[in-house]
Queue: 2 jobs
Job 1
Amino acid sequence: MTPAPHIRFDVLTIFPGMFTGPLDESIMMRARTQGLIDVQLHDLRDWAHDRHRTVDDYPFGGGAGMVMKPEPLFEAVEAIREMVPEPATVILMSPQGRRLDRALVDELAALPRLLLICGRYEGVDQRVVEHAVDLEVSIGDVVVSGGELPAMLLIDAVSRRIPGVLGSEASLLEESFDDGLLEYPQYTRPPVFRDWEAPPILLSGNHPEVAKWRRRQQLLRTRARRPDLLAAADLTPQERRWLDEQPVEGE
Ligand code: 9D3
């Protein structure tokens, strides 16, 4: 048997306890148990040089906040790299990074090993960025308190692209149904809830009509909420014409 595809995440953080909840539930836990992903947490303070386990210091040039010191970070990255032979791509979670999207997630899922550095304070000494980091990654234009939640989000998104993590059928389905449109609305029982009816077409048993309704919902929703996606989406010329004929409504 050929070994299953596998990815190892090493996480360097001053808050390793933040990761235990998310990693110990649901899909992440199952993927770990199955050996499809391996997540190793490392406390940056283990590489501090003093008995107070200091990892930050005042910024040169003054200003508010603290900066992560280079020595513990460099020594930690070097030590963690050598824990196993697989080559590691070192990623700094950073507001200055490349925005995480589907394309980047797929690039990362093809790598054997990611070492994620979670920044805290105002940032990390730039010499770490220039000499120890391969890639900076951001989750988008929103400010959060540190790199830990962004790193968890990355681990979750990348793990879902490892074959077997979702069950291979579900992930293949995700792949082949990626037409660049938003999804259609979902309904379940009861058919009438507090006077609000589910769309009767969905209860009709007429599967071609259901598929047509869903596709049209996708088109209308995408235009209303994410018109930026339409240019690259997989639409037939007929679908483009149909959409052009539909009145633009707030959805
Ligand atoms: C005074 C300037 N600070 C607030 C705008 C800069 C700042 C420093 C450190 C803001 C946030 C953080 C901590 N955030 C991260 O480490 C982080 C992050 C984010 O805040 N948004 C999106 N992606 C990421 S990845 C890491």
Job 2
Amino acid sequence: MKKVGFFRSIHLKFVLIYVLLILIAMQIIGVYFVSKLESQLDRNFKSSLEERINLLAYSIEQEMKKQRDDTTPKIEEDIRTVLQDVKMEDISEVRVINSKSMVLGTSNPYNQARMVGKRTTSLLIKRALAVGSPSDKIELDRNTRHRMRIMVAPIKTNNQEIIGAIYLEASMENLYNQMKQINGIFMTGTILALVVTAVLGVLLAQTITRPMSDMRKQALEMARGNFSRKVNIYGDDEIGQLALSFNNLTKKLQEAQATTEGERRKLSSVLSHMTDGVIATDRKGRVILINEPALGMLNVSRETVLQNPIVEVLDIGETHTFDSLISEQESLILDFSTENKPLILRASNSIIQKETGFINGLITVLHDITELEKIDQERREFVANVSHELRTPLTTMRSYLEALADGAWKDDDIAPKFLDVTQTETERMIRLVNDLLQLSKMDAKDYRFYKTSVDFIGFFNRIIDRFELSKSQKVIFVRDLPNQEVFVSLDEDKITQVLDNIISNAMKYSPEGGTITFAVHIEDAAKQVLVSISDEGVGIPKADVSKVFDRFYRVDKARTRMLGGTGLGLAIAKEMINAHNGDIWASSQEGKGTKIFFTLPITQDEQEDEWS
Ligand code: ADP
């Protein structure tokens, strides 16, 4: 904020107001005082002149009333003598005129010859002689340029007969000079008062402007986010109270800002740490906020989506508008899957609404439901698989049992065969149900392992021996086992089940005379044994290799079912191996053979028995 210029400042305004007030007051007082004084002085001057005229009128009346003869001096001479006595500073001339308007005498020696004995033409004198009343006027002297008061008074006898008139000229310059002096004094006083007022105004204004500029600085600091500054309190007046309120306001603002900032931090922390994506829009549907998870889900950058319509950002512009999102408020399922990664999002919308009902914007929460969808899909497939697996043997059994009921039981040749089939199917169903039960227990973590530290080579040899003894087909067993003991902590029953499954699979899919190789490799660095069982059988197509561990997955359903498989053996094996902290995988070449690998961690000593 720029500084307030001097000509716009309160300082100047204060000084101007004071000065103007004083000026106006002085002017009013001055005009009133001077005019009153002037009229008073003028009145005094006039009355002193009147007194003088009255005195003169009396003396001259006496002279005029005198009986004159040749021995007595002429009236003009007597009047001159009387007029000679008229000594007054301001009176410049006194003339005596008789009733015939003839000038009998003048006090001005320069006018003696010119005027005495002549008739006067002055209108004032003529009126005084005619009417008998005094009159006066102010006139400007042509020579001296002085203002002159001219007064004319009739000379009357006791019985009111007008016998002449007195004409008096008095300069008013003294009076005006006095007035000028008084005005001068007044002016000086006014200027002095104005100067003092101006100085006082500056000082007074400072007492107001200082706290104000302090508050201004404070407001600027507050705008910059600095709330630590405080306004000085100079007094307990209104400005002091304003400063106090300002300091209180600063404190309240600081607290409010701290709360807001805290809330903002909390919100931004919640938004960035939550797993769901959040998008907020303004009332026109333009994105104003988007958190990191949402950016990751939509695979966009913040700059590209901010201020863009949400329907475009969610790629639903063809089917939805912002208004339809607001009115429907239903959650949408959005498929953002790419070739490499499946991604299904559920977008739940809720509107931001004021108490008045005015809609301020929309909040969309994106929830990744890929896993849920996958589980749901798996569940559906699982149910379908189980139903299918159970329905097939049951249908077979029903038709055989129907045939038996229809009379086949009487046939000694057919009846045992039919019963044999139903028994096989029943056993398969029991196996299937057992496998399912086992898997379900493992899913629910409702199982117990009794692990013992076992020499894996000896353990493995015993299992192979069992198969070698019982094998009916012509398959060759090759053992590539290290000639040393290696201890692994395992639940013998469970790992036996795993190996049984893998070996029986290898035998099942091996051709006549095929070789099955059993190998164990001790990986000291990884502290684990790597077990592999390879056959030279039909193999598994490349695309299916990773799927053989899935539940119910079978490369060739008809064939495996014929071979008595449930499609759950390798899935159970995977769960078991994983529960022993190992890994299991397969590699295969179609037509050439299959190799199943698994690892198990090596224990430090042979005595380690544990329950888990
Ligand atoms: P099953 O009980 O059907 O054998 P598994 O889970 O043990 O179920 O095996 C799943 C599928 O993997 C089998 O149906 C089969 O198609 C395939 N498979 C497993 N082992 C082999 C193998 N050694 N050679 C060829 N295919 C195999």
